[in-house]
Amino acid sequence: MRNKRVVKWAANATNGTILIDGSSNGAANGQLKNPYGILLINGSSNQIYLSDQNKDYVGIWTFGAGIANTTWFTANGTDLNQPTQITMDRYGNLYVADMNNQRVVVFCPNSTTGNVVVGTGTNTTPTLQHVGGIAFDSNLNLYVSDINENKVFKYARL
């Protein structure tokens, strides 16, 4: 997070290969502020989903391009607010932990507009304060960690 770049390390390597260099902390495209979640795009060897917590976005990056593609994700027309972890289910749906909006958002394949699947974006019951990590088990139950409440919530198969 501090160096604002993505580096590939081969097994037993002493030096890594910089895949995305966004080391010039800024607001422009191609400049990372606080990269957080990373996920290789299914079927691709040179593209990733990358969340940037301080720039409030998830974008598609191509290795070596130095700049994110123009694909940005929003949730029902609202902005993400400090997205952290990202994961994908077996059907290719992208899930984003939208920390400061107290929710988890899902993006169907080939869509840049998501739907809220957990949380409401407000502090209501069940309370999600600050969504941290998200993960699925083999039965597609969703686990959500809340870093403010020090709890992990299980949501039955979505």
From TrEMBL:
Pfam families given in the database record: NHL
Keyword terms of this UniProt record: Repeat
Any one GO MF annotation of this record: zinc ion binding
InterPro entries cross-referenced by the UniProt entry: 6-blade_b-propeller_TolB-like (IPR011042), NHL_repeat (IPR001258), TRIM-NHL_E3_ligases (IPR050952)
Domain of life: Eukaryota
NHL repeat start and end residues: 75-110
PROSITE patterns registered for this protein in UniProt: NHL
PANTHER family: E3 UBIQUITIN-PROTEIN LIGASE NHLRC1-RELATED, PROTEIN LIN-41
This protein's name: Uncharacterized protein
Species of provenance: Rotaria sordida
